[in-house]
Amino acid sequence: MPRRPGPQIRRASDKENRDGAGTRSDTVKVAVTPPAPTNEQWSTNKQGGNVLQWLAQKTDATAPAPTSRGAVEYLNQAKKPKSYAAAAALSGAKAKPSATAEKPAEKAVDQLAAKVPRSAPAKEPMKTGKRDAAKAASKELTKVVLKDTVKAVPSKVTPKEAPKSEAQPPAAAAAAEFSAVPKPRSKAAPVAPPEPKESDGTAGNLAQLAPAKAMGAFTAVTKATDELVKTAEIPTSATMHLLSKTAPRSSASTLANNVRPEVPPPRRVRGRRRDDDRAVRAQQRIEKEQESAQRRHDEAMRTDAEYKQRFETMQEMQTAMQISQAEFFDKYRRQETLLLNHVVTERLDMPVILELIEQHDVVFVCTDTGSGKSTGVPKALLELSSDTKVVSTQPRRTATVAISTRVASLRRERVGEDVGYWIRGDKKGDEQTRLWYMTSYTLLLRILENPAELPFTHIVLDEFHERQPDLEVTVALLRLALLNKTSHFKLVLMSATLNTEDWEEYFAGLRVATYKQSEPEHPIHDYFLEETCTLLGTDYQAPPQLVSRGVVDKGTVEKHFYLAQNLIFFLNSCSNPVHSILVFLPGRAQVETMSMWLRTQLSHRVDAVPWHSAVNLSEIEAAMRRHIPGRQKVYLATDIAEVSITLPDVVYVIDLVLVKRPKISKESPSSIQYPPLVTQWISRGSVAQRRGRIGRVQQGFYFCLFPAVQITDLPTYSQPPIENSRIDELSLHCLQVVSNPVAIFSLCHGQPLVGVIASSMNMLTQLGCILDAKDPLSAGERIDEIYNRQNESWSRMIMAAAQAEVMTDIPEYHCTFIGRILQLIPVSPQPGMLVFFGFLTGLESLMILAAAVTSSLSPFSINANEGRQRHFNVARAMEETENAMREFCCGLRSDIVAVMKAALLFRIEQRHGDSMETVRHWCLQKYLSYDKLMAIVDLENHIKYELAEFMPFRSIVEAEKLLEQLDKLASMVAVMTNVAFVAQSLEVTSESNSYTNSKEMALGIFSDLTAVPDIHSPSCLRWQEGDVIIPVQLSLIFDKLLASFSTAIASPKQFWMSLLLFSQRVHYATFSDDEGTFHVFALSYGGKERYVEVDEITGYVVLEFRRKLSAICGVLRLTHANRLLYEDHINTLLSSYSLAPLQDLQREVITALVSIFNNLEDMTADEVEHDEDDLDLVSLLSFVLPTRTT
């Protein structure tokens, strides 16, 4: 390998600072010119040459499309078709791997071969009546003659097997015959095709072109029958008659005394005789049919131009396939044996990088994947000095833990000493740890806690090109800190694919340097869609202008999925099992489908390793260490495998060039509320990332299932995720440092859409997390903990910078006590409300479990019991799963309650089970996923951990006690769950009781959407007309919502009453008429208002219950402010405000709640129309403390 050239530093001209202060922005670019790729490293296909050159130098990309300026617009508002000529011209029918299109003449031969009868058991000899003595003597004489004749017949007549010949080496000369091209094991021919002769005609051509198996069977039968005719002449009936006439005549008595008794021939001889007869007849039929097929073929070649063209195209495809496979095997023959214990991945000029970091404020490190930047740069910064404190971020938890473990092992120490990791819910390290690996969201939370005093000397943002929404906010805050010199740190941004010019402009006013290096360590052989189809002998033709059509249709996904299956089969049949395969699939559903197919079709030959967001890191690490002799590992991954982690045993990457990501449309308001997951083509930057998974430690093969001539149509970079994501949780966290999260979004490089910002702010307001600063109630409701601790200079600095961007005043909001609780726990705002309801009712532990359940996926799945699924169809398997769910639902029609009970029983089984296998077997019997239940339990513990320092509460550890509590109060849990997710409520307008003929439909109560049940997700309830359905999970498909993980309310009165009791704010008024006094309440969610009328007594009950909840809110506020005091001191403090102890108030609330719903029949609560704006009274779950008496 040529020696790597040293970096060439060139200084660009200084740029003037935008602020006009006279400071200059120094930009230094460091580029390492890569050596010219050789023919062995890169394909020289004339159609894909420019693409491959781009892949070799993928950091030199054009500027991306303009990003959203949604935050600025929100604030201001408040005031080439390519032709596909390289593919074959045949239809896009699916073909088996490494197989040619079906030949017409071969089809006839196959049909004839199928007609050859198999050996059948011999029948019993026919019984004859009494014969005279002369006939008996003649038969006996004939039997003697036949005995001598049968001796000449072979004991066993079988078709002779064609002799096996060793395949020639793949490096044979280019002029070698097709028989010399090595083939995969699944397609290897037992004998080379014979050379065609003139006398053979079309049969000779068929012998050369037809698959070896079909022609081998034909030849074997022919030779067997010829041998039979030569070696054994079976007597005919005429011969038998002649022998009977020439036998000597004698009396019956004489023959009876002189001739031995008649003995029938052995069954084996009789059966062999019949088999030989069948072989002769089969040979005759085959010869006739072969002659007929020959005549039809010759006639079609003369008269049918289309037939002739297809036949010639088939020959060309087979020729191209064999040449392509020969080249593939020639490249693969040079594959080296990898020593995993001697893998060296660092290929950076570390002294140059460290010097640039020392001399500049911001440094971009853009190098090839696998160059060692994720481990090498933070490790080198750590070893600079004993005073350095470094933090390095990763976009995903899996990569965070894996890289920290790798760096610690390189330093020969344990994780948690000098090197540690910190992710939400798990932390290894202490105050002495000097190198932290964190997820990007964890770093953001640390910055928001105290932005004025960042405890790091170096901040490294790895995989920067992914640009998650939290990373956009983090970069904006760090940029502001560097510009205003509030903290002293160095910022390092690392990526393999990044448009540095655009970002250098974003950091104007700072000293910026760029280090670029693109040096492939090992050759990577690229196969695009055209080359892949040629290699497999498939005539699939991709439609033109795949990208310009905007969407990826289902048919295209299925074709590429099928092609990937064939490619896996081909690679598995012809490569060493130690060389693993990595397959990039669009989403989790495709990963599970492919995994099931491999376990069904190739279970004895492959080791399938699913890899998506729900798979624990320990499973991937175990798979990397696992090696089953004779079985090839196949990693089936989503885009989660694009970054950071090196899989040293992977030699092949199969890329479908697809990904499933949220997609928000400005023209579709429903997509703003529920961003749909859309299958879309990835960017060229992601192509480079996936290609970079190989070539790190050994040569590799990259199969890109996308036309080479259309690769330039892919976008250079992916659209920033912040433009297609909900930002409710992120907005709530930003309120820790600024009074309006939109101010921070306006400073980001990529910004959310206007509709997304408006929707998030409305949701936070309706849940009671924030209040407008102009609201008269906000002064008493805001929590001083945030604003007392917050750096006022930081808030003013952010607001001033944002106002300079938008040129208008920015409204301010105050964060409430509810908002502070939701900031601490690792769930989104809607599930977080369940935790708050738990504090109100004294069911803290039970509602924390409910929050963990509603934040996770349902563990019930028909795929959890694969053994049973093979025996039943999908509909029956779904019904069995739903019947299993009904055993857990406590008599309610609630999927959430069913999962809560399943999780508690799972915890009990964990404690009493003999081993993990016992627990897994229990899950299998109950149609439950062990991994998903473990995720629920882990999240539950994480929520308790985060709340422990904020508020003392009764944590019930024993699962048996929680199970008893759930059995008694399951209906109350369902009521509070309905309130938390009321914005997604639906009213059923049509019903169905069959899974296979599901025609249910529902309309949104607080939205204008139409929803149907997701029949692919198991549920313990069936929709019935008039029901109110509260789904936790909604997914948008076109203009309809698929609802799953739901709770059903049979009585609308129960639905309205639950909202009146627990809504954070309701407007109401009292009216009187001839029938008496009544109350009208207004409920607002999702921008829509509904009015509910109740009688006087019901209105009084509602208002009184809400007063009790407000009293508990006051107690919670005092308890939090004085959490370090003993319980007796807190009770004394509460009595000075005329408040009862917390547990006494909680007991009153839960008792009153049960009583209200038990006597619901005696109350009235009906939805009415109310047009007048005269509801001037407000009932708020207020945290304002009453006047202190002593």
Number of domains: 6
* Order of strands across the main sheet: 1-4-12-5-11-10-6-9-7-8
What assembly state would you assign to the polypeptide chains in this entry?
Answer: single chain
Mean pLDDT: 76
Shape: globular
Low-confidence residue ranges: 1-64, 80-259, 339-345, 864-872
Major sheet size, sense and barrel closure: 10 strands, mixed
Structural class of the helix and strand makeup? alpha/beta
Report the helical percentage.
Answer: 40-55%
How much strand?
5-15%
Instruction: Return Rg in Å.
Output: 39 Å
What's the number of helices? 41
DSSP, total strands: 32
Distance between the termini: 85 Å
Biased composition (Low complexity): 165-190
Biased composition (Basic and acidic residues): 11-21, 124-150, 273-301
Organism: Leishmania lindenbergi
Protein name: Helicase conserved C-terminal domain containing protein
Could you characterize what this model shows?
The strands form seven sheets. Strands 1-4-12-5-11-10-6-9-7-8 form a ten-stranded mixed sheet. Strands 13-20-17-14-16-15 form a six-stranded parallel sheet, sandwiched between helices. It is globular and about 110 Å long. By secondary structure, it is an alpha/beta fold. It has 41 helices and 32 strands. Mean pLDDT is 76; it is low at 1-64, 80-259, 339-345 and 864-872. β28 (1065-1073) and β29 (1076-1085) form a beta hairpin. It has six domains: 104-332, no CATH class; 370-495, 3-Layer(aba) Sandwich (Rossmann fold); 523-706, P-loop containing nucleotide triphosphate hydrolases (Rossmann fold), CATH 3.40.50; 729-823, no CATH class; 825-1050, no CATH class; 1056-1190, no CATH class. Helix content is 44%, strand content 14%.
